Each structure stands twice: as structure tokens, then as C-alpha cells.
Amino acid sequence: MAIGKLFIGRKVRELRAASNATQSQFAERIGISTSYLNQIENNQRPVSAAVLLALADKFQLDLAELSTGESDRLLSALAEALSDPLFDNYAPSLQELKLVTQNAPGLAHALITVHQAYRRNSEQLASMDDRLGRAVAVETTPYDEVRDFFHFVDNYLHDLDTEAERLAGELGLRDNSRHAVLADHLERAYGIRVVYQPMAENALRRFDAESRILTINPYAPAETRDFQAAVQIAQMHAAERIDAIARGAGFRTDEAVDVCRIGLHNYFAGALIMPYQSFLRAARELRHDIELLAARFGASLEQVCHRLSTLQRPGLKGVPIFFARIDRAGNITKRHSATKLQFARFGAACPLWNAHQAFEAPGRIIRQLAETPDGVRYLCVAIQVNKGLGGFRSQQPSYALALGCEVSYAEAFVYADDLNLTERSSFEPIGISCRICERVNCASRAVPPFRRRIFVDPDRRETTPYRIG
């Protein structure tokens, strides 16, 4: 694919600082003028192909790392925050937003955090009723903090991922004997015995540190039982690494650190069961057929979809995809995107998205070609799954798993076969969420978009009771 205009001033400044060079020295080494370098570092001019090649040659710049995924995520989150009516008198241009996210990402993150606190405060005040007037301290929840942490590290932790892959190779994990290998490793390396017996409702695993017994619910699916054994290995094998990452993330509460540790344990477990390079090779070979990948690695569909979203290793990246898990109410309970499509941080997902249709066809792959208001086109895939344990009285929460890619990558997916990827009429219009979607003529709109006036005509009624100005 052709590389568009790249404004990588911060990256170039970091390379120059790492080499302890002045602008003049650095510019001379890559064969450009000092004034041009100054403009590049201040994002006033994009880097040319010749400069990119010189940076790669002289300073080992990894061109694969110049993906705009991180900037797109931050840009989307900042744009959504600034679309709030709170900023009614300020409508930044796309160029202004890019300047902030590229030159001062820390400031962008801080503004997003402040806006989150404001939104939660407003929501609590609106529901206080008779309690109005009492002081309310609103903080970003630990869960939200951790979700944002994974989102902005591109859902990839290099040290954990490579260590899990190394351990998988050392153990010789094979799908048909993985259960025995994991249990044997726990006993040999840590003196932990794995037993299978029913536990309290919805409990999957319990570890007793004193008796060194790990109890796993036998009624859980086989892939879940293996995953829980792998989580225990993560807790024992990678404890120091995980603690360092969680404590170094800058969370504001101990609760957030604890929640992050759980996420990191799960990350390591997924990387152990689906080692990066073998999983990436299989994804390419099987053309991202999630059912075949699940069968090959003895994993659940959700585990496979989540793992596909983590294939962001420098120099060995997979296809950039988006992944989300959505409940029946439309709440996005997991989300990550390495594409330009960035999920809304507030509100439900667009009702035109095929993820919602998955609940109408349980267990069946639903395909959709979609176009967002910015003109970017996507291949979208969704499937409904149930979680939980077996048994008549057990809870069985239902979710839609949604993943996809920009249409330029669609041929790498088996789901694109027999779809017309070139005909404009094949693509259905979708949005991000109603409150920030600029589409005017949408019969499925739930609420008007922020920053747009509405007009009500008592003598005329269409699918929505107002017209968007």
C-alpha cells in the first residue's frame, strides 16, 4: 500500500535525542537542510519517501511502526470529547486536532480524562433527584482506566507476548495434549495440583495458595478450562513483569492496578495458548477464518477474535482489525481498533451495524460491507456466542462478537469471497454513535447529533420528528 503524507515530528525528535545529535548534525546525516528538519520536527511538513529511507538506513527507523493507528485512536477520542455541547463556541478543525495529537499527546489524553469526569458528573447529577445539593466526587472507574490503558498501547504488550511465546515453545504445547501439558507444568514448576470439581454458581477457577490446589469447574467448556490453567501459569511465571507493567501505567488507584493485573494475566494466557508467530501464520494461511482458527488452537471464538486484535508486533504486524464484544443492550464490553474506525466511548453502537443482527441468527457468521461518514469502507463480520457454564439453571449471557478490517485488506479474509468490493452500492452506511454521527437522513437515528441544530415542523412528519440543520 502507498504511504500517505506522514507527519512524524515527535518520532523524529525522539530519534535525534536518542542519538545525542543537534538538528544540524542530524539533518546532515540524512541529507536534508536544517530548516527542513526543523519543519519536520514541528509537523509543519511531512516526511518524504527519501527522508524515510534515510531514517530507516541511518537510525534503524522501523517503517512498519509508522502506522497511524495510535494517532487515529487518540484523534477520534479527542474529537468525540470536543463534540460535547460544553464546547459549543469552539469547533476545532481536523488540522488543529492533528497538531494536538501529534505534538502534545499527553495534553490530549489529559483533556479526554477531564471530559470523562465531566460526563460522569453530569450523569450522576441528572439522576440525583432529591439528593441534589449533596457533594458528589466523580472519578474515572478503575475498569475504564484499564480499558483505556490497553486501548492506547495498541492492545499489544511486547515483553509479555514474547515471553509467553518462548514458554509455549519450551513446553511444546500442542492442541490435542495441551490440557495435560499445562497441568503437568503447574505441578512440576510450582507444585500446584489441578483438580476439577463443581464450584459455586458461575465460578470458573479457585486457587488455594496454602494447599497449592487449583480448582477448575469441570462444566466449563474445554477451551475455558485450558485458559484458566494458563492464567494460573501467568500469575506464577510472569508475576514480576506483570506487576511492573501495572504499577508503571500511572493508574490513580490500587483498584485500577489490580484490574490491570487481571487483564495482563489474561493477555499472557492468550499469548501462551496462541503463540504470536504460529498464530499469525495460521491466520494468514486460513485467511482469518475464526472458526478454523478456533479449531486449530483449541480456543473459543472470542479468544481467537481477541488474539487477532493483538497482532501488533513491531516488524511482524498482522492485518489491522477492529474487534468488539457487544451485549444485547448494545453496550460495548470489549473494544479495540487498529483501524480508522474507533468505537464511541459513550453511548451504544450504531444500530445499522451488523453486530446487532447477530443476535437474530445465533451461531451464524453475519457479513456486511459498510461505509462510515468519513468515507472509509470496511468488511464487517459478526457472530453471536453464549458464555457461562452448562446446566439448566446456569446463567448464559449472550454477546455479539464483531471484527473487521478496512476493505483494502478484505482479500486476506475468507469472508470477503463472493462479495462485490468495488461497487459503491454494496456498502451500507453506518456510523459510530448517534450523538456524534453527522448523517442527516438516517431512519434509525436515536438522538440528534451534537453541534447541529434541529427544526420541528408541526405540519410534516418523517421517520424522525425533527429535521437536522
Descriptive account of the structure:
The structure is a single chain. This protein has 469 residues and is an alpha+beta fold. Helix content is 41%, strand content 13%. The protein is built from 16 helices and 13 strands. The chain has helices at 9-18, 23-30, 34-41, 49-59, 69-82, 94-103, 105-126, 142-152, 158-171, 178-190, 222-237, 239-247, 254-273, 276-285, 290-297, 301-308, and strands at residues 193-196, 205-208, 213-216, 312-313, 316-317, 321-327, 332-337, 366-371, 377-386, 398-406, 428-429, 454-455, 467-468. The chain has a 6-stranded mixed sheet with strand order 7-6-10-9-8-11. Strands 1-3-2 form a 3-stranded mixed sheet, with helices on one face. Strands 4-5 form a two-stranded antiparallel ribbon. Mean pLDDT is 84; it is low at 123-138.
